[in-house]
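Narrative summary of target 7.
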Amino acid sequence: MPREQQPAQHQPAEPQPAEADPAQPATEPKAKRRAGRNLPAAIGVGAALGGAVLASLFVWIPAFLALVVVAVMVGIWEMVRAVSVHKARPPLVPLLVGGPCMVVLAWFGGADMLPLGLLATLLATFVWRFADGVRDYQRDVTAGALIAVYVPFLGAFAALLAHPGRDVDEGAVRVLVTILAVVLSDTGGYATGVFLGRHPMAPSVSPAKSWEGFAGSVVWTGAGSAVALPLLLSDAVWWHGAVFGIAVSVASVLGDLGESLIKRDLGVKDMSNLLPGHGGLMDRLDSILLALPTAYAVLAFLVPPS
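Modeled conformation, tokenized:
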């Protein structure tokens, strides 16, 4: 019998709305519902983190070293926790010891010491894992090597940018322009993607990203850095800033996509719930980790430290 001719009593009744529980709010807060996260908490946490970084850079630079060390340790913990979803068990102790050592070696010894710190951390990770036997050894040490490179090695370039061997103020400014470029890339890409995004960039990895948004990231960051770099670094000219901004923007987008790929492979939405409204610390560092060595290399080539 056609659907439109079926007797009325065979049609399912309209579901009745359940009575509201007086102990529960009728709806979620608008800010949280619209953003998918707790927006006021996200803004507050973001402002607090940004303020702590700026204060450490321009008030007492050793505090910036402490912030980088803490960030690296938290990032390592989050990554080890995340990969355990797939039963990988990278040794946590040598990573938590070796990661901060990489940052400290980069801070006091410069770029020449950073690879030695990475090598020592990898060797300690491989040897430490011997205690658990042969079963799944390759899987666990591979995960440990990925974490050692991805979090502390890339993060240590923040220490190289702010290296106290050069003028302290100049080092702080180099970190500042890098953070500014990443913020411009994220903001410009988001705004452009919202209004103009039509062609998905990597739908299987990050469906929200579009080629138009990527172009917006590059244009906004290149233009903003072309203005900011000559103002903040005395030896820089506008085209130095443009090249710097474009390079950092590309690295920032690739870093964001890389983190999204890892999370999709692990089947997790956030690396942790440590930061209200943000997820985990690694969810906030995804754009900056790959941008740090890119910024260091471009600035060292175009605007060598005085």
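The beta strands are 200-202, 206-210.
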